[in-house]
Write a structure and sequence with these properties.
The structure is a single chain. The chain starts with a helix and ends with a helix. It contains 17 helices and no strands. Helix 9 packs across helix 12, helix 12 packs parallel to helix 14 and helix 13 packs across helix 14. It is mostly helical and 401 residues long.
Length: 401
C-alpha cells in the first residue's frame, strides 16, 4: 500500500511539473523575469525601439474586439485549474512538488492579470509617389466644400442607405485628401471617392443649382471617381491591417463594383472585408449603450454579412461568414439605425441569413449527397421562410412610405 501511495505521488508530481513547465513561458511573457533570463542565457531579444505614431495607431485600430473561441476556452480551463488547486487538501509531499504547484498557481494568476494580446505584423500603408493617387483627377475643392456644407444643413439620403457612413468622419477624410498636410492612406482615398460618388448621385436639380455644379461637370465627376476607386483598390497590399478604415474602404468599394457588375472584383473585395472583420473580432461584439464606435462596427459587420451572403449565393460559393461563429448582437431599430429605412436594412440581414441556408442545404457539396426527399423537405421549409420575409418586407415598406 505504501509503495502504491508513493507511486501516485510521483505521478502527480511529474504531471504538475510538466504542466508548470508548459505554462512557465507564458508566465515569463507576462512579467519582467523573461528578459533577464534570456540575457543570462546569452539569447538576444529584439532591439528596443520607440514605435512611430503610425505603428501605435495601427496596433490600436487592429485589436481583436471580441473574445476568440481559444481565449474563451483558455479562461474556462484557467478557472478549472484554480478551483482544483484550491479544493485539493494539503498532503505531505516533497519540496519539488510544492514548488511545481506554487509555480502553476503563479502562472494561472498571471494569466488572469495580463491576458494575451494579439500580435500585429502589418503596417499602415500610406500614399506616396509609387502609388500615384495624387495624380488622379478629383473634383475641385470648392465643389467638395459645397457638398459637405449642404450635407451639414440638409441630411442626405446616403446616410440612411449606408448607415456605417457618418458626416463627421466623411469630412475628416475629405480634409486629409483635399487639404493634405501629411500622407494619407489608400483606404482614406477610397472612402473619399466613394463618398463623393454617393453625394453627387443624390443631387437633384435644385441641389445642382445651389452647389453651382453643371450637368456636364457632374457627368465627368461620376465618370472618373469610380475609376479612382478601382485604381486605388489595385494598390492595396495583399496583407493589410484589419482596421476599421480598411474594412470600411473595402466594403464601400465592393458596393461600387456590384453596381458596375464587376462580379469577380466585388467578390474579392467582400471576401477580404469579411476576413478582416473576422480578424478584428466584429463577429463577437456586444452592444454598448452610448458607444457610437461600437455601434458603427456592429452595423458594418452586418452589412458585410448580408452582402457576403448575397454574392455567395449568386456566384454559387460558400459564404465567408458562418452563422455558427457569430455572437454579435443583431441589428435593431432605432437603437442601431434610426432612419425610416432602418427596418428594411434589418430585413436585409434576415435575407442574407436565408441565402446562406439556401446554399448550405440545397447547393453545397454536402447537400449534393443528400437524398432527393431530404432536399425537397429543406426546399419547402426555405420557401416558407422566404414568404415570411417577403411579408415582413411588404409591411416594413408600407410603414416607411
Amino acid at each position: 500500500m505504501a509503495s502504491r501511495h508513493e507511486q501516485t505521488i510521483a505521478d502527480l508530481q511529474y504531471k504538475v511539473e510538466q504542466l508548470s513547465k508548459s505554462l512557465h513561458p507564458h508566465s515569463e511573457g507576462t512579467n519582467g523575469t523573461g528578459t533577464a533570463e534570456r540575457a543570462s542565457s546569452g539569447v538576444a531579444g529584439p532591439p528596443n525601439a520607440s514605435p512611430s505614431r503610425q505603428s501605435s495607431t495601427a496596433d490600436r485600430d487592429t485589436s481583436f474586439e471580441g473574445d476568440s473561441s481559444f481565449m474563451t476556452h483558455s479562461k474556462q480551463a484557467t478557472q478549472a485549474f484554480k478551483a482544483s488547486l484550491a479544493s485539493t487538501p494539503q498532503i505531505n509531499v516533497d519540496d519539488a512538488l510544492s514548488d511545481a504547484v506554487a509555480n502553476l498557481q503563479k502562472a494561472l494568476d498571471s494569466s488572469d492579470a495580463q491576458p494575451l494580446s494579439p500580435s500585429h505584423s502589418t503596417e499602415s500603408t500610406y500614399d506616396d509617389e509609387s502609388h500615384g493617387l495624387s495624380a488622379l483627377p478629383m473634383p475641385p475643392s470648392d465643389v467638395v466644400l459645397k457638398l459637405l456644407k449642404r450635407a451639414k444643413v440638409e441630411r442626405q439620403r446616403i446616410f440612411d442607405e449606408v448607415p456605417s457612413l457618418e458626416l463627421t468622419s466623411m469630412i475628416s477624410h475629405c480634409q486629409k485628401v483635399f487639404f493634405a498636410t501629411e500622407p494619407y492612406s489608400i483606404a482614406t482615398f477610397i472612402i473619399v471617392n466613394v463618398s463623393l460618388v454617393l453625394l453627387l448621385r443624390g443631387l437633384d436639380e435644385r441641389a445642382k443649382k445651389e452647389s453651382q455644379i453643371c450637368h456636364s461637370d457632374l457627368v465627368q465627376y461620376l465618370a472618373f471617381l469610380p475609376k479612382n476607386v478601382d485604381f486605388a483598390v489595385k494598390k492595396l497590399p495583399l496583407v493589410s491591417a484589419h482596421s476599421m478604415e480598411n474594412i470600411t474602404a473595402l466594403h464601400l468599394a465592393c458596393s461600387l463594383a456590384i453596381e458596375s457588375s464587376i462580379q469577380a472584383s466585388a467578390w474579392d473585395l467582400i471576401s477580404t472585408a469579411a476576413r478582416m472583420a473576422l480578424s478584428a473580432g466584429f463577429h463577437r461584439l456586444a452592444r454598448k449603450p452610448g458607444d457610437n464606435e461600437q455601434r458603427l462596427k456592429i452595423i458594418t459587420f452586418w452589412s458585410i454579412y448580408a452582402m457576403d451572403r448575397s454574392m455567395a449565393l449568386s456566384l454559387g460559393r460558400a459564404p465567408n461568414i458562418q452563422d455558427y461563429d457569430i455572437k454579435t448582437d443583431r441589428l435593431a431599430c432605432p437603437v442601431d439605425i434610426d432612419s425610416p429605412i432602418g427596418p428594411m436594412l434589418v430585413c436585409w440581414v434576415d435575407v442574407g441569413e436565408l441565402q446562406g441556408q439556401i446554399y448550405h442545404q440545397l447547393y453545397s457539396a454536402q447537400a449534393q449527397t443528400q437524398a432527393p426527399e431530404t432536399k425537397a423537405t429543406a426546399a419547402l421549409q426555405l420557401a416558407r421562410r422566404c414568404l415570411e420575409i417577403q411579408r415582413t418586407f411588404e409591411s416594413v415598406g408600407n410603414g416607411a412610405k
